[in-house]
């Protein structure tokens, strides 16, 4: 069994002193993988102090030197890419082939793309008799979830470090491989001591970080329930917050759009990483006339998805993270069964592999708009299909949850798709299957969060403008 039992504080590894641990299991076999040792508030104090002391030197180093170090981190991560992809796949359950591309290669590209912003971003501008300088916010607490662990860490660390902030990271205690790899990568890259500190822990460590008086900003990704608590605590001393939270994103198929393509893309999005994706499309909104054809296409699409061993190259659907996660998802499915919706695929008794935390890809049609399934994030492979009578109806349904992270619009042409996209309260809307753009802002309206990650928008989150006036 692997023991994840070291913090990174002030450039050195430090053994976790406290005795509490969390057991991690292989998602596909349920065999124990290892133990994560959990730190405490004392560790947070040491890490924040190291970050505070490292701040002036890191700022003075200049953006080009910081960008060079970001590229060195990317190179070091690349050299351990295979191990990282394996580790994350075993923890989270994502098929290995996808894990390589999405869990590892995409974040490495993001470290490099963020470094490249050093060449184009204007840190100083002239406004009348003022010189406006973008200065780093200061010491950042980064708290991240388990579902895309390296990606979510990268979305905070790379821009924070480029901006000149120093960071204390508390990664998810449920997916430790990514931060362990990152720790080694930062050592190899020669990041100066204290610039990045990593404290292993759970809610106790997260709470200590959020309430620490020397932390200037909290950048949090996780559930809306925890995000609300964290934002309220951070407001106590007016820390800047950035919140990337849950979602219940919808795809709308407008009259005359390509239904077959819409169904294919929706199924791919909903069941990616077994539904453990914040921006997954988990509601499909179709016209009542299209419903019978949509139903048949959905059933066919799911029948072709192989569920099984994440290491097998033909597997499309792996297991969920843990027994607890499977239990939560099955509770949503049980409730949907009681709602009397039209089960199109999967369900509580659908066959799954004998070992591993599997839930069969499940689809319900004619889902009531006021049901829990239509409104709450499941974080598992469950799609809800809702029917509309008019396009206004469809827009109201899409905007009808408290979330607002992503959406897809399928339309006869781009102009009508854009018109509907403009009516949606969602941070990311793709029209007719357009691909993800890592340089575009990513984040949510409403209960999906505050602030944006990605590209220049992600960098600006970690900067404060300071205006200096001159007697001109
Ligand atoms: P979670 O909210 O349970 O935990 C997230 C992090 O917060 C973990 O590191 C956890 O240890 C820490 N934490 C828990 N309680 C805390 C507390 N009281 N104070 C401070 N920190 C605390 O979420 P999760 O289960 O790890 O991740 C799944 C959730 O994350 C889903 O809701 C998903 O939609 C969301 N998510 C959002 C995005 C996005 O970009 N919007 C991306 C990925 C995941």
Automatic annotation (TrEMBL):
Start and end residues of each Aldehyde dehydrogenase domain: 19-467
Reaction(s) catalysed by this chain's protein: an aldehyde + NAD(+) + H2O = a carboxylate + NADH + 2 H(+)
Keyword Amino-acid biosynthesis in annotation: no
A single GO molecular function term of this UniProt record: aldehyde dehydrogenase (NAD+) activity
PROSITE patterns named among the record's database cross-references: ALDEHYDE_DEHYDR_CYS, ALDEHYDE_DEHYDR_GLU
Top-level EC class as recorded in UniProt: oxidoreductase
Keyword field contains Oxidoreductase: yes
Domain of life: Bacteria
Catalytic residues (positions): 244
Keyword vocabulary terms for this entry: Oxidoreductase
EC number of the protein: 1.2.1.3
Cited Gene3D superfamilies: Aldehyde Dehydrogenase, Chain A, domain 1 (3.40.605.10), Aldehyde Dehydrogenase, Chain A, domain 2 (3.40.309.10)
InterPro entries in alphabetical order: Ald_DH/histidinol_DH, Ald_DH_C, Ald_DH_CS_CYS, Ald_DH_CS_GLU, Ald_DH_N, Aldehyde_DH_dom
Similarity annotation: Belongs to the aldehyde dehydrogenase family.
Protein name (Swiss-Prot/TrEMBL): aldehyde dehydrogenase (NAD(+))
Organism: Cupriavidus numazuensis
